[in-house]
Design goal:
The chain is of the alpha/beta class. It is built from 16 helices and nine strands.
Length: 351
C-alpha cells in the first residue's frame, strides 16, 4: 500500500520505504477518533500485516497538543440523543477489534505518545509493541468523568499495574506523565520531543531495524511523579468497594488522598461501580474477553442517562456540572452492575 498524503484526510495512510505510516489528522480535536478513522486504520493494518514490503508500522498525531484525546464523544452524544445508538455500536465494535489487532500485531508497532494520549488514544498506542513517550506525555483513561468506563481494553491494561495504581487511574481518570508511564509499564522508551522528526526519518530509512533506531534516540526517563503517592494509593485503593475506597481516602492523613476523595465525588457513581468491578476481574481475563465485555457494557451504559449527561456537561454545554442519575453510589445495585457487564448483545467484537 503506497498512497500519496491527503492533507484533508482525517487519517493519512502511506508507506515510506518499508515503514507503514499512520498519521492522525484532526489536530483541532486532538485527533479524536471517528468510525471512519478507525476503519481506515484497521484496513491499513490488515493489509500491511501480510505485506512483505512493510517491516514495521508507526502511528503519530498531527498538531502540538497530543497523539489522540480519545473517541469523538460529540458524535457519540449526537447518536445517543437522536436514538441512533447503532452508530455508536458500530464505532465501539470496530474500535475494539482494531485494539485487539494492534495488541496481536505480527510486526513492530511503534506509537509516539506525544502530548495528550487518553481513552481511545491509549487504545491505538499502549496495546502496541513499542510505546515512546516525551516530556509532554499525559496518559490516562478519563471516562468515569463522562459516565463511561475505561474501554478499549483499558481495564485489562490497568489491572496489570502494580500498587493499585491501575484502580487509582481508572476511577479518578487522572493522567500520568512519562516517568510514571514507563515505571508502570504503559510505555517503554523516553525520547526528546524535539527529536521526533529525526526519529521518524530514521525509522523510515531503517524500518527493518526498529529496535536499533529507537535505542539511538532513547534517553533516561524522568522520575516517576506518582512514586510519592504510592503509599496512600495502595492503602486506599485496595479496598473491596468504591464506597470503602472513598472512606479510606477521607480518613487518610495525606491531603492529596483527601482531595482524591473529593474528586471521586464528581464522577458518575455508576461509572465508578462498573469500573471498579471491571478492573478487579480483568486480572483473570484475556484481552479478547475484556474487549467483548467492553462492548456489552458500552451498549448497556448507552441506554442509561449518565453517558449523555456526562458528555453534555463536558463538551456540549461545557458547564462541567453533570447531574448524575443516580447521584450517589447508594443508588447503584449489584444487579445493575451484573446487567451492564453480562447482558448479551446482538453485536459482538469478534463474530
Amino acid at each position: 500500500m503506497t498512497t500519496s498524503p491527503d492533507d484533508e484526510a482525517t487519517v493519512i495512510i502511506r508507506t515510506v520505504g518499508a515503514l507503514g505510516r499512520i498519521e492522525l489528522n484532526k489536530p483541532k480535536a486532538i485527533n479524536a477518533l471517528s468510525t471512519d478513522m478507525v476503519q481506515t486504520i484497521d484496513r491499513a493494518l490488515r493489509q500491511w500485516a501480510t505485506d512483505t514490503q512493510v517491516a514495521a508500522v508507526l502511528i503519530t498525531g498531527r498538531g502540538e497538543r497530543g497523539l489522540c484525546a480519545g473517541g469523538d464523544i460529540k458524535a457519540i452524544h449526537r447518536d445517543l440523543t437522536e436514538g441512533a445508538n447503532a452508530g455508536n455500536m458500530t464505532f465501539w465494535a470496530d474500535e475494539y477489534a482494531m485494539n485487539h489487532l494492534i495488541a496481536e500485531y505480527p510486526k513492530p508497532y511503534v506509537a509516539i505518545l506525544d502530548g495528550i494520549t487518553m481513552g481511545g488514544g491509549v487504545g491505538v498506542s499502549v496495546h502496541g509493541s513499542h510505546r515512546l513517550v516525551t516530556e509532554t506525555t499525559k496518559v490516562g483513561m478519563p471516562e468515569t468523568g463522562i459516565g463511561l468506563f475505561p474501554d478499549v481494553g483499558g481495564t485489562y491494561l490497568l489491572a496489570q499495574l502494580p500498587s493499585e495504581v491501575g484502580m487509582y487511574m481508572g476511577l479518578t481518570g487522572q493522567p500520568v506523565g512519562p516517568g510514571a508511564a514507563i515505571a508502570y509499564g504503559l510505555a517503554d522508551t523516553y525520547i526528546d520531543r524535539d527529536r521526533i522528526p529525526e526519529l521518524v526519518e530514521a525509522l523510515e530509512a531503517e524500518a527493518f531495524a526498529v529496535d536499533t533506531v529507537i535505542a539511538r534516540f532513547a534517553e533516561e526517563a524522568p522520575e516517576n511523579e506518582l512514586s510519592v503517592a504510592e503509599g496512600w494509593i495502595a492503602a486506599c485503593f485496595s479496598a473491596d468497594s468504591v464506597v470503602e475506597i472513598i472512606d479510606r481516602l477521607r480518613q487518610h492523613p495525606n491531603e492529596d488522598a483527601q482531595k482524591t476523595a473529593e474528586l471521586l465525588g464528581t464522577k458518575s457513581p455508576r461509572s465508578l461501580a462498573v469500573t471498579f468491578e471491571m478492573i478487579r476481574t480483568a486480572k483473570d481475563m484475556k484481552l479478547e474477553e475484556v474487549l467483548e465485555r467492553d462492548l456489552r457494557a458500552a451498549s448497556e451504559i448507552g441506554r442509561r442517562p449518565d453517558l449523555t449527561e456526562g458528555i453534555r456537561a463536558q463538551v456540549i454545554d461545557k458547564d462541567r456540572n453533570p447531574q448524575w442519575d443516580p447521584p450517589t453510589l447508594a443508588g447503584i445495585t449489584e444487579d445493575e452492575i451484573r446487567a451492564i457487564l453480562d447482558t448479551e448483545q446482538e453485536r459482538t467484537v469478534f463474530p
